[in-house]
Amino acid sequence: MTTWTAPEAHRVSEPTTGDERTMLQGWLDWHRQTLLGKCAGLTAEQLTIASAEPSNLTLLGLVRHMTEVERAWFRRRAAGQDLPDLYSSPDNADGDFDDVAGADAEADLAAFHAELELADAAAAGLSLDSEFTGRHGRISLRWVYLHMIEEYARHNGHADLIRERIDGVTGD
What class, spelled out in words, does domain 20-167 have in CATH? Predict the structure, then answer.
């Protein structure tokens, strides 16, 4: 029996020129692939190794969290789709991070890939100036892109440290 490992990421170069939408999408895609690159080649068990006590932060937890975040910002909020959470609930707000011990890593990475495609499709039909109402007032799709780039940048820093702890691999 072969042990499953996370597939190699399809790394893209970060954009250096282009219009605003091209730059935002390009940087978002670069960060998405960076997270997947941190998971590449690791077993399901390795993906659930926590960063350092007392934290329970894992690479799989980060993937699950970003799946939820992609769904929430692009599909539920910006596109107005009525969708449930995948891993969290009102009784378990941090299920994306906390419930990785019995998770199916292969299925969770597949869900992440699927959510990226669905998020991109939902955003493709919207103007960057398209707005929706959030907790703090009006929010534009442009803001969502910038927020997502920031969210990935922060969590990719976490992923760097977790991956280095697992097997010593460093780099972007």
Answer: mainly alpha
